[in-house]
Amino acid sequence: MQARLKWVDGVCFMGETGSGHAVVMDGAPEGGGRNLGPRPMELVLLGTAGCTSYDVLSILKKSRQDVRDCWVEMEADRADIDPKVFTRIHFHFVVTGRGLKPDAVERAIKLSAEKYCSASIMLGKTADITHDFELRED
């Protein structure tokens, strides 16, 4: 995996992934930024949600669950002193479908958290990570 990051101005950076996608990262105005894009640590949190969501949906499809929609709401705390690593992250999955089995969703989330999601497992070295979910019938 490769990536490239180029300084634009102030605390604004343009990142390019090895697959050719670009993202702008910037800081808050009080930190010298112009608020042109997400903060780098916000992207870490979103990337982790993407990683675990990919796993959960893949596992649910393999277990023949009729998933129609899925999203994850996250809350996180960071350390007060440098390095300001994540110390707590909570993932709340909202899964919509037809006839979804709660035990299948719970199992998919657990497998992702404990076995498949590289990002969650890395962040779990510094953060207490918790999960819950709600099911919505479509």
Automatic annotation (TrEMBL):
SUPFAM superfamilies: OsmC-like. PANTHER family: PROTEIN YHFA. This is OsmC family protein. The lineage of its organism: Bacteria, Pseudomonadati, Pseudomonadota, Betaproteobacteria, Neisseriales.
